[in-house]
Amino acid sequence: MPEPDDAPARARHHEPVLPEGPVRATANVCHAAGCLSLGSDLVFDRLCERVEASGTDDVGVRRVGCLGLCAQGPLVKVPEHDRLYAKVPAEPDELDQLVEQFRSGTGGLVVSEDPFFARQVKVVLRHCGSVDPEEVEDYVAKGGYAALRRAVTEMTPEEVVAEVTESGLRGRGGAGYPTGLKWATVAKSGEGGHKYVVCNADEGDPGAFMDRSVLESCPQQVLEGMAIAAYAVGANEGYVYVRAEYPLTVRRLNSAIRQAERAGLLGTAIADTSFSFHLEVRIGAGAFVCGEETALLASIEGRRGTPRPRPPYPAAAGLFGEPTLINNVETFASISAIIERGGRWYAAIGANKSRGTKVFALAGAVERTGLIEVPMGLSLRQIVFEIGGGVPGGHRCKAVQTGGPSGGCIPEELLDMPVDYESLVSAGSIMGSGGMIVMDETTCMVDVARYFMDFCREESCSRCVPCRAGTVQMHRLLDRICSGLATRADLERLERLAAMVQRASLCGLGQGAPSTVFSTLRYFKDEYLAHIDHRTCPAGVCEMAPFEMAGSGR
Amino acid sequence: MTSATADAVGARGTPGVPAGPAHPSEDRRWRQVDVRIRRLGARPDGLIEVLHTLQQLFGYLDDDALAYVSEALGVPPSQVMGVATFYSFFVLKPQGAHTCVVCTGTACYLNGAKAILRALREALGVEVGGTTADASLSLLGARCLGACSQAPAVVLDGEVHGKVLAEEITALVASHA
Amino acid sequence: MSVVTLVIDGHDVAGQSGQSILSVAREHGIAIPTLCHLDGLSEVGACRLCMVEVRGARRPLAACVTEVQEHMEVTTTTDELTDYRRQIIELLFTERNHVCAVCIANRHCELQDLAKALGMTHFDLPALNPSAGVDASHERFGIDHNRCVLCTRCVRVCAEIEGAHTWDVRGRASEARVITDLGTPWGESPTCTSCGKCVQVCPTGALFEKGRAVAEGKERRPYVPFLVARNRRS
Ligand SMILES: Cc1cc2nc3c(=O)[nH]c(=O)nc-3n(C[C@H](O)[C@H](O)[C@H](O)COP(=O)(O)O)c2cc1C
Ligand code: SF4
Ligand code: SF4
Ligand code: FES
Ligand code: FES
Questions:
Q1: Global confidence as pTM
Q2: Which burial class, exposed, middle or buried, applies to A11 when counting CB atoms under 10 A from its CB (0-12, 13-18, 19+)?
């Protein structure tokens, strides 16, 4: 981007108000995308003005990252009184009253008593909503970069890998590959040559905003994780690949990198050791498939983002042909806590073969949409009903979609299932990157299958035939079903085609494209049949094509 | 490609740095492009970054621009075009003065994005990806803007509008178009 | 390079490490259908016709891009694989417009040969019939996009052997097309050397030489391997 790299990430109207003496209340104003879109920057400016105008010297005002309850922004948190204020207005009069509430610890909701927060365990998000995303000093003051210092000064690379292995952490980008194992592989490949560490911040799943929130709330934590990884695998260069749809993320990242370099925490001679790690941001350009690791690498190399057959895996031959470690944003964001508190501590959280915590973006037909972090193994029902507050408008929960276009829909009757990698797969979905969409009875499952097929069809890189042409034909078949023009033979053909595309496609996009079809057929076949046999859409979503056309669609 | 005047080349000349290809026009923005190219080491892997810069400066990528990058980075023209058309963020035609991006991600789709798109298409008389006849507004779709908690979301000239209703947004957009 | 022994369709065979399953199979007279593969060009693993079952693998693997390994057990034909291959051919036939009777490549077309070899008689998926366009601006050659299967052989032969890189793929999904330069009409291409290699390697009637009647068809010469050998010598 042509704008100067060290420009402030946002035109600031006001400096934070940070009183010198003892403070009775600090208004932490959320400055992540959700609240910003609801005008939290204006709230921040006005709050600063009001506090200054009032002459009080015991109230602070600062900017922080995502506070979680995104749908009810603009949010302000007052940590001194453990209170959160939702839908904060920008009206000066109302703000004056609010400042009084901040000081006295009244109004708002009590964070530790609120079910939305009480069930959560914050590891990845532990600094989210308490540090200023645009000031490296603030992150350092809260203990940031201690893990990196410790790693490079007190630990050998092997010890770092061992700690991560012991934690049981698995990749948070979707597939759940053991992170320690991946690091060990990269550490062993390529004798002393060039290596790269790449952060996958492409976050292409529609309906997912975890990585964005993490990067916009605490970019330093991700950079720290990358630097630790680089030290562990023996890399000195790295890239963060961010999607172009997230301009604020890009700006915060660029500014975070420059600031960390100036503070001697990135770049040359990190923490006064001989270890150096140089980072650059690369911006995607609107192609979902670039989240796939080999496509992502092709894109960083300036080429069309088409996946290539593996092996060789990036760990052996990745960016510019060199061994490359690729991990997801959340994977990297988990690292500093693991180094600080130990792999064993991390492994004690979670269930079965899924250790630690997972961040989810809760959205759709749920009362309290937002960003949450829960220990692995919590049930879907607890997430949707206890944390999310259930389905609004007196509607009934019908299904929960996880895993984006390669995932599936889990029906209400299975919601007691624990959220872990294996359970989700056995239910016909995947963990995916963390998008979780709640659906109520006004959602037609065939329409959902068609929606995701449309997505895959448009996002196919076009390289291999099963995906490029197969998704087009599957979409046509689903479209016929939704319009009441299909026969049972069409349904059989859909299943046959889906099986081929799943098994024969080159990369995960094509292989995953039929999965919503399979999962909706598994749990909601009656809806398919209602469209076919009775030309009705039980959810009342699909419009049936005029009857004369039936059968002549070919 | 049009040939640049000797002046234009001379003006760009920085001692020690090999001059790039001749600028397609005398527009000063080409110098900014050159700065970006030089910072990236004029290597083929900088292609996407340079295309971003070009689109930011000129609003879209035309054949002159693509030919220029091809020469400056040593990437074959067909490959430059292949890359520029692979990524949906790049546009090869001038866009409207205003842009309206409707999110069609899962949360927004289930929350009425379809109705919003339909209303906008009808009100503006353009398809998604199109620009109104008077070039005042481009209607675009997006796959999740990461504002799912405000679904359905529409971004009008860079500003996110959450929980929008079809009638509301059509009126608002119409006031821009 | 070391010798690797493996089993393909029940036969004990030997190959070199680093060699693909496809290449070892063919050396031993075991046929595996292919479309995007061409001896002498880089592999893209795109058509997926060469999929084989490898014992222990979770899904079928493309033989053209999978290296042989000691003790590998490969099966090249199963009912499932045949069904997948037929579906792939059907997808290709319905994706664009392949009316063989009026095609210059009739009876010299690899797509047609594959369909025949797989015993295909009819398709039940609907034809999508996009009008993909024809470029006849080159004085000697032409391209009919309606018959293109996007195997990218033309792209690779032009970039890897001729060194001109006139061709590439533009767009993605169903909008993908092979293009010359910036989408410039082929006849005006400043990079094309008119060597005709792309026409030679095209498996269908998409790329053709002008002035040949339908009945004459396309001449096929397996000359790419020789070009590779020549390039290596020089
Ligand atoms: C079609 C497709 C899209 C993907 N999108 C993403 C993505 O947006 N973010 C991500 O981290 N991983 C994504 N992945 C997974 C990556 O390929 C890769 O497994 C991951 O980045 C590895 O990091 P991890 O081990 O930390 O999970 C995607 C995979 C496929 C096949
Ligand atoms: S499966 Fe789809 S996205 Fe993946 S290589 Fe094949 S065409 Fe491309
Ligand atoms: S023109 Fe021929 S060689 Fe080129 S991609 Fe199409 S089918 Fe393959
Ligand atoms: S689905 Fe629309 S912003 Fe995420
Ligand atoms: S020949 Fe192997 S995928 Fe085409």
A1: 0.92
A2: exposed
